[in-house]
Specification:
Blueprint lengths: L3 H6 L2 H8 L2 H6 L1 H4 L2 E2 L4 E8 L4 H6 L4 E5 L3 E7 L3 H6 L3 E5 L5 E2 L2 H6 L21 E6 L18 E6 L14 E4 H8 L4 H7 L8 H10 L9 E6 L11 H18 L3 E5 L1 E2 L10 H10 L4 E6 L9 E5 L6 E7 L6 E8 L3 E7 L5 E2 L9 E4 L3 E7 L8 E10 L7 E11 L4 E5 L11 E2 L18 E7 L4 E2 L6 E4 L5 E4 L2 E4 L3 E3 L6 E3 L2 H21 L29 H9 L1
Parallel strand pairs: 7-10, 7-11, 8-10, 11-13, 13-25, 25-29
Antiparallel strand pairs: 1-2, 2-4, 2-5, 3-4, 6-12, 8-9, 14-23, 15-22, 15-24, 16-21, 16-23, 17-18, 17-22, 19-20, 20-21, 25-26, 27-28, 30-31
Helix pairs in contact: 8-9, 10-13, 11-12, 13-14
Amino acid sequence: MASTLAEQKKENLLNISMQATEEEREKSIALNTGYNKEEKTWELIVKYNGAIAELEKKYKDITVVRLINEYAILTVPEHLVDLIAAETMVEYVEKPKRLYFQLAFSKSVSCINSLQSGENNPNSLYGRNVIVGIIDTGISIENPEFRNPDGTTRILEIWDQTIIGTPPYNYKIGTTYSREQINQALKATSAQERRKLVPTSDIQGHGTSVAEIACGNSGVASKSDIIIVKMGLAGETSFPRTTQLMQAVDYVIRKGIDYQKPVSINLSFGNNYGNHNGSSLIETYLDDISNYWKTVICVGSGNEAGGATHTSGILDDNEEYIVEFAISEYELSISLQIWKSYWDEVNIELITPSGKTLGPILSTNQINRFYSEKTQILAYYGEPSPYSVMQEIFLDFIPTKDYIDSGIWKIVLIPKKIKNGNFNMWLPAIGAINVGTGFLNPNPSMTFTIPSTASKVISVGAYDAYNSSYSNFSGRGYVAQIGGETVVKPDIVAPGQNILLTGGGKSTRVTGTSFATPFVTGSAALLMEWGIVKGNDAFLYGDGCEIIGLNQRKPRLYGGPTGLVQFFLLNM
């Protein structure tokens, strides 16, 4: 067993993952992410202080990818994880999580057209000399939306994390392609020759659609430069990880520094694992790096409000509380998180669809194992982290054979001593579960996905531009940030329903906060052009932005991340 210090410096999910057997991990999507069975190593996110090079010298078998502001991605043999966590320079350790991917009329209602009324208009804004960073499923380089009138590309660089080759900077994965290489490929006379020169692609099309809205020729920032990161393992059954996302953001910002251009970054995906209070390492990392260079990060709030993946309640000292949730047929595995105040003492039991009672779940630092007809349940009580006093009880449902038991399950919360009483529960994001799986009494509040919960990013929800109403699927709620500040999310909404895309010679309609976010990303690029590139406000980025009206309108002042785009989307 790890020491108490190492246990508390590792997140709950990592502790239970390391205590689970290899067979249990293989059956669990949540537990297995980040583990390499062949090498018996873990990919870890680490917040550290001091010189991490000392750690590399001490442990020769680890590899370290340094990120900005004392964050790092480590690959660590399993037998060294507890030793690494116990090191004084290591503040906290998390395992990666899977991420799930969530025009003319829409530009008009967003007031973008009025900003682009003539090429010679001194107030026309197109994102010139600003980099739009699209971190997604890749891009189609042939698409005319991303080419200049002479046929050359507007893309500065592509980093494809899925293609083995020469990695950028100190990263261990992927291959980069320069503007020169892309232009050479575009001159190729055949698709086969083009793919040989630049083999990266966008099979899903999600990243290309996002880029078309944010920075395509018919999109918002139509004159901006573009940097693309295709995140690893973005396929039908395998998803990119938070570690790849952190490296991608780090890469785009470093490139912005290299080119000496401000950067507007688009993140159109997220996950449900965590307390949604801004305290995980992916959230604190994005907050930290938002203050680095001339950077704005826009993140979709997710599409969870229309599902049934969150519920909440208030416990009373003298009354049991029962939460019901359905598991549909053919569900391979699901996890469920219960988050409560650490000071509240609660016994927990499970009732299976057949009526069998399992439990109580013991509040130890060991895995509780229970068995239903076709399901094994792993349960684990977490400890407070250095960043949060909330306590997590993690339940993982894995099959004993093919699928877990379908039907109505019940969680019985039995209060022992209650001081606060509030609790929240989350299931995985709707992209990770079957239709029909969900809470029977869901709560659409606090349905934004992580990392849109970070306080210094611009969190973007979706609205229906055709009837000017908030989209019922769009994540919303509030975030109780570190230090007690309560932040309402999302920061802003943009068109995200039935968006018409016409790039590449095909018409497509898309819906979701994935496609609302690039409207804001592109708008941020326009505003950075006005402020930074044109010299109207050199500090127009990050969390401390101040907006003054243009076109002889009455000056208005906005603070915080919302202000960066409110000027365009709300006041023009």
